[in-house]
Write the structure tokens for this entry.
Amino acid sequence: QTLAIMEDSPGENGSRYILSFKPEVTTAATHLSPFELPFHFCNGTAFKRSLMADENIDRILKEKKAEKEHIERSSRRRCRIPNNFSGPNVLGKVGHLALIADDDAARVISWHLSGDMDCVITRTTAEAQRINREQSGRQQVLPLDGIFVNQANRPLPHIRNGRELFSPTGNPLFARNLLIYPCEEESCELVFKNLLGETILMDDIDSATNYRKLTLRSLKRIPCPTILTRQGNRLSARGKFGGAQNTVPREFNNMFGAPLPQPYYSLLQEIGDNSHTPVVNLFFFLRCAVRLCVLKYCFCFWSDLLSQYQSVLLKKTEAEEEYSKLISKSHEMQQKQHKMDEIREQLKDIEKQLGKFSW
């Protein structure tokens, strides 16, 4: 016979039930044991919903990964200087150690450091000496252990004791604060503090010249550092500006590369991949409201949401299946134990009966 259970019958999802059929036959001479039919109860609606949710997660993950790969393939500014030196004691050439998001800033800062962009940075003087010998003195090198930099982080010249001496125009900031270091942050900061020092970046040359004038007037004995402008000008620490020597040429192309856009790192958070996270200068984050680094230890609310949910959903399904198997085995063992007890009782009865006829 076919047995059917009505839809929406009451039961606990994932549980195992046993239907027990006990025959009631008054004319039978022998005792008939009940027939037991085990079955598993499953909430079909919830099960389908979970499958649909799992399929949606896979689809979303595929879409996010495709979008990530598209951004990686998209064209962006890259450093064109060959970086053909490598090794455990070699950081690389200056032009490859930093990224700059703003195009105008990248252009003027790269031009200002054009004499250093090809310089190979090494960890040790010994490594720098080795490269110098191999290249017959044709390759400029700079060892980290030969750099001295004042570690004090002084504010901009117009700020003293936390107060502005005057209100400048042109949005002044230290040029080095626009640099983004993909790796070796501490070493790269040392390099660019040495190369850029307290060079300032401003919007235009008029704001730069006024800033220098007000700084010298307010501070007198304290010099004003070199000022670069987004328009491509340089106002030297000696006050000189103008002319081809202090203007970025139109055809200048050897620039620092550009970082991947912010949506790329948001995608990495969503799909649970933080292997390409760059380290971003904190001032740049405050100033541009663009955080390009994914904090390594803060996964409390947003990181890996889709991947974690999918993993937990899979573990939940596996745990329910394992639980059902254990319950099933438990019931089977109980039944077998019950049968063994019955057989033992029957054997005892037979032994007693045999004992009555013993001679």
Q: What stands out?
A: The CA atoms of residues 132 and 203 lie 39 Å apart. The longest strand covers residues 16-21.
